[in-house]
Input
Amino acid sequence: MRAAGYVVIGVSPDSPAKLAKFREKEGLGIVLLSDPDKAVMARWGPSGEKMLYGKKVTGVIRSTFVVGPDGVLTTRGTT
Output
């Protein structure tokens, strides 16, 4: 992705230690940032109601954002 001019960054409410362990276990080559107070998620909106094991819960919704070099959001999607 870097060759195409993109940098992938993951954001999670998990602790830095937990994210480092996950990154190592999964062999991820991306940056994972900790957002324990969910400030980034509150600003960008990837949180809300979802189904988990057949039950409605409120939590993190995996989302993808593409931000242009000017800092403007160009694309948003959920996975």
